[in-house]
Structure to design on (248 residues):
């Protein structure tokens, strides 16, 4: 059973490594990520949000849901630490 | 066992440094629009200033500045501000987190998006500060070794 698990993880790992061959080149201007949304953010950020820092406008406005999730993750990490580690004052 | 003693130099230096560190953290949060920074980064700096105070001055003295209750309240307040701004957009008739509808006095929709982003950055910052400080102080446990209670679970001999 252990041998089977090892073989499966080796197979899975080599499949993943093999598939990286099909990924676009790093910084390729014709990759899907660089042809649809990125130019729109770069061109319209100042016009639509008046924020000079593009990172902030993407983080907080265009991808606001994502950042809401990140904040909730941090919040739940804090809550989990309180629940597990905090001792009652006696 | 590391023994703890008070060093006047360290305590004084940290006490002087703390307000500047906290002021810089607020700058990083508020200036995230035009320079690198934002809620997460500024919140971490602000939390680090409190952690520095705990290390240098001890839990008791730091807790006078930020009590446990206030800390717990702040960690949820940050997320509440974020979600609340999103909900306000929804109630005013736009999509969730579409800040352009927010009625800031004398602000165009573009400027409203700018200010809405500032609001959520502040929310993120508050949450990050409180969570960092709360995780640190919970990991710290009790400061005084004699206060550690022998309840048989935590101090089991291995």
């Amino acid at each position: 059973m252990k041998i089977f698990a090892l073989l499966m993880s080796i197979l899975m790992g080599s499949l993943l490594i093999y598939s990286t061959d099909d990924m676009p080149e790093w910084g390729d201007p014709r990759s899907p990520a660089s042809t649809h949304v990125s130019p729109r953010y770069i061109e319209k950020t100042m016009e639509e949000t008046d924020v000079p820092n593009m990172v902030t406008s993407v983080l907080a406005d265009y991808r606001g849901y994502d950042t809401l999730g990140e904040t909730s993750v941090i919040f739940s990490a804090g809550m989990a630490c309180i629940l597990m580690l905090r001792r009652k004052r006696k | 066992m590391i023994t703890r003693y008070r060093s006047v130099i360290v305590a004084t230096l940290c006490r002087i440094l703390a307000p500047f560190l906290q002021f810089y953290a607020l700058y990083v949060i508020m200036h995230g629009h035009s320079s690198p920074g934002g809620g997460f980064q500024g919140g971490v700096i602000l939390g680090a200033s409190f952690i520095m105070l705990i290390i240098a001055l001890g839990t008791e003295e730091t807790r006078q500045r930020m009590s446990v209750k206030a800390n717990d309240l702040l960690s949820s307040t940050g997320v509440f501000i974020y979600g609340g701004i999103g909900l306000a957009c929804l109630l005013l008739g736009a999509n969730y987190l579409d800040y352009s509808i927010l009625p800031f006095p004398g602000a165009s929709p573009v400027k409203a998006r700018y200010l809405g982003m500032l609001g959520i950055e502040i929310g993120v910052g508050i949450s990050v500060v409180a969570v960092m400080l709360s995780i640190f102080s919970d990991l710290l446990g009790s400061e005084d070794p004699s206060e550690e209670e022998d309840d048989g679970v935590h101090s089991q001999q291995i």
Remarks:
- Chain A has five helices and no strands.
- The helical segments of chain A are 2-19, 32-35, 37-49, 54-62, 64-85.
- Residues 30 and 75 of chain A are 38 Å apart (CA to CA).
